[in-house]
Specification:
Blueprint: H1 6-11, E1 15-17, E2 28-31, E3 35-40, E4 46-51, E5 62-65, H2 70-73, E6 79-83, E7 88-93, E8 96-102, E9 108-114, E10 122-127, E11 135-138, E12 143-150, E13 161-171, E14 173-181, E15 184-190, E16 197-202, H3 211-224, H4 227-240, H5 252-270, E17 299-301, H6 302-314, H7 322-329, H8 332-342, E18 354-356, E19 362-363, E20 372-373, H9 390-405, H10 408-422, H11 434-437, H12 450-460
Antiparallel strand pairs: 1-6, 2-3, 3-4, 4-5, 5-10, 6-7, 7-8, 8-9, 9-16, 10-15, 11-12, 12-13, 13-16, 14-15, 17-18, 19-20
Amino acid sequence: MFQVDVPGVVGRSDIILQRPNLDKTEAMPLGNGRLGLGVWSQDGYTAQLNRGDTWPFRLSPGHVVLPGLKKLAGASDYSARLNLYDGEFIEHGAGMTAVTYVDETADAMVVEVRGADANIAQIAELKLWPGRSAKVLVGDTVGVLSETWRDANEMGASGLTFGSLSAIRVDARDSKISAVDPLCIRITFHPKSDGSFRVLVAAPEWRGGNAMGAGVAVLSKATALAFQDHRAWWHSFWASAALMKLSSPDHFAEYFENLRAIDLFTTAAESRDRLPGSQAGIGDLFSSFGDDHHWGPSAYWHWNLRMQVSANLGAGLGRFNEPYFNLYNDNLDAVSQWTRNHMDGRPGICIPETMRFNGQGYENETWLKSPGINCTAIGRPYYNARTISTGAEVALWVWQQFLYTDDLVFSSRTIRLCEAQHSSCWPMRVGTPRALSTPILRTHTNRTGMFAIQRQMSRRCMLFSLL
């Protein structure tokens, strides 16, 4: 049996900086699958917090600025490393070290600083981007920025209430907290006598309620955790991944190895919430661009999601495909209604290639005079108006996921999705193809009930064989 040096293999793909990443386009990604960060060195240190449930515009819960780290970022001996194995961004310079990570069990980011001058005051600011309308709360040690809104203005709006919350606390001496303006909270403090301090910022899911109570609860949990807690999760993750160590004389193989490892890292950092953490091929959970999104942030593009499903299966990480399947399975009733309304009452489902998070086939773009409509027999011409193969591809990945995992719970949960897709072969079916009537059985397993499940799955998820 092979003995793999997992830390050594993963570490070959660390991202190493020899100068500070001053521009937001150079931000480093971190996350726990629900809360993500983009971290860069503007103003000494800046980190934007992002969540995938601040619908419909994916608004940032806030960003943190630590101007006292300009000494570190501006040092002639500056260096930094995105440590994939530990899930940390580590910066060194001028005798100081700053380590940033996202807690595994608490939706909070942590910045641990060592080597600061204990006699020089530091500042930590928590801000929202311009144009927001927040409620600002300041306690003895904690400051909170919260906001709620309704998804009510776009085509296909859900009518539901969403929001964002961020809360900040420092683990240091002499901390004083104040509200600078309606979008900014500032904490001034001194490092501990050994030159260390921690800045903790919570950003849990938020739809309204006791904002201070929610912020304090997450920060208290995060304060009690040690860095070993999140490292343990990352080490376990890498131990379960199918790693590759590649080499070639021209180093192209090493480059491919690096890209694959970074892809697996970002998958684990963004894909552990109910729905996918990226859309339109953009890593939204790692955004450093404020509240701006180039593509309509309320929708998902299937052609950008499908290749990630394949990559996860190939790496033995099928569990990270759950958000992808949730997107379509949880919205099955909405997609069925959409199909009846927009495809002349045909049976089954036409899954919109570009689909809103709530199952509506509208693509709301600022650069369009009116929203693009997907899966429609009656709408105006548009890129994906007549794209009818998306459902077949989703059914294909349901089948492939089952083949890779033999997960009976997954198969029973998604069988309705496959049934609906099976009944919608109307666009291209003539008669009943043999592929739909001949079950495929895998004879290597003797688990109770597996054959029966496989018969159903093979009958109902094989529409892709028609295409």
